Amino acid sequence: MRELFLILKRFSQVFLFILFESAALVILFQKNDYHRPLAVNALQRMSFRYYSRVNRLREYFALRETNRQLAEENARLRSMLRSAFREPGRGFIPMADSGSLRQYEYMHARVVSNSVTSQYNYLTLDKGSDDGVAPDMAVATDRGVVGIVVSVSPHFSLVISLLNRDLKVSGRLKGSREPGTVEWPGRSYKKVVLKDIPHDTRIMPGDTVVTSGLSSIFPEKLWIGFVEKYRIEGGSFYSVDVLLANDFRKLQWVYIIRNRLRKEQLQLESSFGR
Predict the structure, then answer these.
(1) Are 137 and 120 a contacting pair, CB within 8 Å?
(2) Whole-structure pTM over 0.90, yes or no?
(3) Which residues, 6 or more positions from 101, have their beta carbon under 8 angstroms from its beta carbon?
(4) Which residues, other chains included, contact 116 with Cβ-Cβ below 8 Å and sequence gap of 6+?
(5) Where exactly does CATH 2.40.10.340 map onto the chain?
(6) Res 102: pLDDT
(7) Bridge pairing between strands 237-244 and 191-198
(8) Per-residue pLDDT for 92 more than 50?
């Protein structure tokens, strides 16, 4: 209480000035028909600016919620796409079609941490083991590959980024069946390299680079990027500079992709020592 009294005493002249000015303005606007509309217009402009800012703030938070809802809906629709299914095999004897088996499931997640300047970059997502996320699940956006889940906690997952020198992904040119290896040379966050493409492969700048499907993690034909230039290395193979489709600096929402048949595939391969 004493501190409040000291503050009032210290600024008493300021408070008196504000009080007298306010009283003078009230009297002026009440008694003067010329100034009254000016005051009303000024107050209206101030109110308009205030409510405009409030509405923009509300729209911002509403937009975040809308983005979250759209990401959930996109994940649901992606799980329904034909590319997420396997057609049941037809044996030697024709049988009634038993329908398609969903191989890939998609879950949306928000990027809460991301690096692009290290030689070994990682991302953190806001989904973890409580949401069904596990290591060795693919991570991508609508524009292509992002990385692979390497570790999880109940509420978060750690993703090794495509911009990490330890990560290699099987990729190919969209118009070719020849697989190669996509890796990051550790320089620009905008580029990766596609290696081991046979020199007789037809290739042009601007060609699309996608995942090969020769993996138990990534679905086939996920975007990676576009051919910038290429050169012969080792006499028989192309080394292709690829401009990434994703801008890794701006990642906000991603999809975690689960291959429901991965365990079966790995068990079969391991039984033959692959």
Answers:
(1) no
(2) no
(3) 85, 86, 88, 261
(4) 161, 163, 189, 248, 249
(5) 103-262
(6) 80
(7) antiparallel
(8) no
Please say if the pLDDT value at position 226 is more than 60.
yes
CA-to-CA separations, 69 to 66, 110, 234, in angstroms, rounded: 5, 12, 49
Superfamily of domain 103-262: Rod shape-determining protein MreC, domain 1 (2.40.10.340)
**Residue 271 is encoded by which pair of tokens?**
């039984």
Contact 121, 115 (CB under 8 A): yes
Q: Put residue 43 in one of left, alpha, beta given phi > 0 → left and psi -120 to 50 → alpha.
A: alpha
Using CB atoms within 10 Å of the CB of residue 139, give its burial: 0 to 12 exposed, 13 to 18 middle, 19+ buried: buried
Q: Quote the CA–CA distance of 127 and 132 in Å, as a whole number.
A: 8
Maximum Cα–Cα distance across the chain: 100
Cβ neighbour number for residue 27 with a 10 Å cutoff: 10
